[in-house]
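Aspartyl/glutamyl-tRNA(Asn/Gln) amidotransferase subunit B (Mitsuokella multacida DSM 20544), 480 aa
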Amino acid sequence: MKYEAVIGLEIHCELKTKTKIFCGCATGFGAEQNTHVCPVCLGLPGVLPTVNKRVVEFGIKAGLATNCTINKYSKFDRKNYYYPDLPKNWQTSQYDLPIAEHGWVDIDVDGEKKRIRLTRIHMEEDAGKLVHSGTTIKDSATSNVDYNRTGVPLLEIVSEPDLRSAEEARAYMEKIKAIMEYIDVSNCRMEEGNLRADINVSLRPAGTEELGTRTEMKNINSFKNLEDAINYEIERQQEVLEDGGHIVQETRTFDPARGITLSMRSKENAHDYRYMPEPDLPPIVTSEETIEKYRSELPELPDARRARLEKEYGLSDYDAGIITSSRAMAEYFDAVVATGADPKLAANWIMGDLAKNLNEDGIDITKSPVSAERLGKMIGLIMKDTISGKIAKKVFKEMWTNEDDPEKIVKDKGLVQITDTGAIEAAVDAAIAANPKAVEEYKGGKKKAIGALVGQVMKATRGKANPQMVNKMLAEKLAD
């Protein structure tokens, strides 16, 4: 029997506020354990929380950016459960009246667009962090608790079960990450836990509508782990079903070192949490004027920016998609083009040599040693035929460790392209005289043989000859 995967994500997005959601404690990452805490976020008796207004603003902006309806009346609820990282024994969250619901985003997988529906976006406080002695909770002898993260504001973005593969789930999470970065509500640093996902996976016979029993995997904080966990879980569930077994509704953990999921506990339902309205916080009432004010503050979003790059600059759908996949890269591209650089050349250099060097050094584009202005100037030298594309690669490599402008590097290294007809003609004549076999093959109809001659000219001129002039001159001379 052929099975179809049904996948939904609950993405937890940590907001970039200076203070926590219900108190004045700092939210900075990496502080000494249990130093960013106070009686309010620790839930000590007699304390009263107050809502951080910025969290509400960010929740509304996230809803608007994902095509949600903003609820003008929403409230906080207590989600009751016991776990060591939850000092109050309940999490202040939202249940039946979230800040935003019924939205959607579009994703691209293998050149095909698909719309993924959002069930809701709600505000909540984060729990603390268990610090395990081993690699996962399953192989740890002890676990300590750091409450610094307790009360850090989160948005939980819940999708409908519209995803059908690990590739679609990754594309969806990448799109949510891009949107949150564009509207500047989160740093989205996955390695710091700013963005993480709970994954719900079930299988059903292909062609049927009824949902199968689902399992949930918690706190996946990298795109690779997201894909690996989903692919393993699909394979595991399929084996169970094909062997005549039944899937158990449970929460599982993903072990990235072994690439497998492991059972943790039975999965709770909403009624297990005994939701109740939060008595210490008033409802959130938002006017239409406030919603429209926040809408007017939204920047150009990824899909709109992508369409603009295709229309204004003629970029391909693929190139525009890569460039707009992060706000930092899109802004870098715009800054390069603002120098007068050809947009297609700018896209090629950003996606090619720049991306390669950033990956090798493990740094973000915002930390690039080659600024957008300097890259734009280098592309300008290519456009003016001062240097060839091949020489530009040498210049770019030098720019990575040298703060000089590309013009100075080209001058100091003697890399100016030879466009003098006489100098090129002498090198062309020498190449023809020294390679009679290649000449004979070319004249005999083997047109690719000209490549060997071009190579000889470029070698003789140390790569400085203008390649277009070399090709044109060789073709003319060999046609005689």
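Residues 421-478 form a domain with the Arc Repressor Mutant, subunit A fold (CATH 1.10.10.410). The chain has three domains: 3-292, 300-412, 421-478. ok done for today
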